[in-house]
Write a structure and sequence with these properties.
It comes from Flammeovirga aprica JL-4. The protein is an alpha/beta fold. The chain folds into three domains: 60 residues; 59 residues, no CATH class; 176 residues, Nucleotidyltransferase, domain 5 (2-Layer Sandwich). The protein is built from 13 helices and eight strands. Strands 1, 2, 3, 4, 5 and 8 form a six-stranded mixed beta sheet that branches. It has a two-stranded antiparallel ribbon with strand order 6-7. A hairpin with a 4-residue loop joins strand 6 and strand 7. Helix 2 crosses helix 3 and helix 11 packs across helix 12.
Length: 346
């Protein structure tokens, strides 16, 4: 980092290297310090009325007092930027946000802050340290990813004792990672669209697009160059005034986030459920809702916030309002009019 403060022992080594006629570049490489930082310290040392040999005889306190306040100011500026990084990252999630726009806001609030090149460098370095991906930078309210889990839950018929395998539907808003989960009896269209209705009501709004896996309930046909959604999926999207499209076949990176959410649901929700027995779908979903509420409140490991807090602070306001009524399933049937003028349906 250019302009960083260095330890007093490093300063003494720097002075020793200068007595040996080391170049600033060689000192920077040897001490693993940014070259511009070395240049700044050497410039300060050249402005004091001491030789390098005399400087080495000074105490640590005397040596530290020789440097201009600029180093502290640079360090304070860097520390201040690092403190703002989480809020700057959240601004990047807003629709239409670019790094240049966020930098302009930063500079407006901090007139003596970093210029654009240094700002972007520090931002990207911070993202790497936080393990934040810059490739898939999801904007608030743009998409909702949905999928069914590969593993099933079970409901026992109280009359016969028969065990029924239950499908589990998961939806996630990728910007905040706020997650919805519910159990349904099948992946058929009526259950799938009921789960979608529940998800949008749970989120309290509609994203710009719904991204599904290649489910039979959502996808009608897959060709080499295009994937066609079902009529019912088109009607659902039209009802909620959004778009709907599936992930690309054989492109796991398109659905990495929802699959990651599924794995976390296995750990946080499926595992506790294995210790219980359920005799109705409603009782199962009641427990799922409680576990899901706790799951969304868990803080991220690298950030002092949770999925729920991220959703309430940034993503919720980016969703469009829900329509008055939920989507209702349509059934389509093609019939041929007979010679006597009748058409038979069924």
């Amino acid at each position: 980092m250019a302009g960083q403060r260095i330890e007093i022992m490093d300063i003494r080594q720097l002075i020793q290297f200068k007595t040996q006629n080391y170049s600033n570049r060689k000192i920077a490489k040897t001490l693993d310090i940014h070259r511009n930082t070395v240049n700044t310290y050497v410039k300060d040392l050249e402005g004091v009325p001491y030789t390098y040999q005399a400087l080495l005889k000074l105490s640590d306190q005397e040596l530290s007092s020789l440097f201009t306040p600029l180093n502290e100011k640079q360090f304070d500026r860097y520390s201040h930027l690092m403190e703002q990084m989480p809020s700057l990252r959240n601004k990047m999630k807003l629709v239409g946000a670019t790094l240049e726009n966020v930098w302009k806001d930063y500079l407006h609030d901090n007139p003596k802050g970093y210029k654009y090149t240094q700002f972007t460098k520090h931002y990207r370095n911070w993202c790497k340290q936080q393990k934040v991906s810059l490739k898939l930078d999801h904007k608030s309210g743009e998409q909702m990813f949905v999928d069914f889990t590969g593993k099933h839950l079970q409901v026992i018929n109280p009359n016969t004792g028969e065990v029924e395998e239950i499908e589990v539907f998961v939806a996630i808003l990728p910007s905040s990672q706020y997650t919805f989960m519910t159990a349904v009896r099948s992946q058929k269209q009526e259950d799938f669209f009921d789960a979608l209705n529940q998800a949008l009501r749970f989120f309290g709004g509609v994203p710009k697009a719904i991204v599904t896996d290649n489910l039979k309930a959502a996808v009608a046909k897959i060709t080499k160059g295009h994937t066609y959604v079902t009529k019912a999926m088109k009607l659902f999207a039209s009802h909620y005034n959004c778009s709907a499209f599936p992930t690309r076949p054989y492109s796991p990176q398109d659905k990495a986030l929802v699959e990651g959410a599924v794995k976390l649901c296995y750990q946080r929700i499926f595992y506790p459920l294995q210790k219980q027995q359920f005799f109705s779908l409603s009782s199962l979903n009641s427990v799922i809702r409680n576990l899901l509420s706790n799951y969304n409140k868990i803080q991220f490991s690298h950030r002092n916030t949770s999925r729920l807090q991220e959703f309430l602070d940034y993503e919720k306001k980016s969703l469009t309002p829900l329509p008055i009524s939920s989507f209702e399933m349509y059934e389509f049937s093609r019939a041929k009019v007979q010679k006597m003028g009748y058409a038979f349906l069924g």
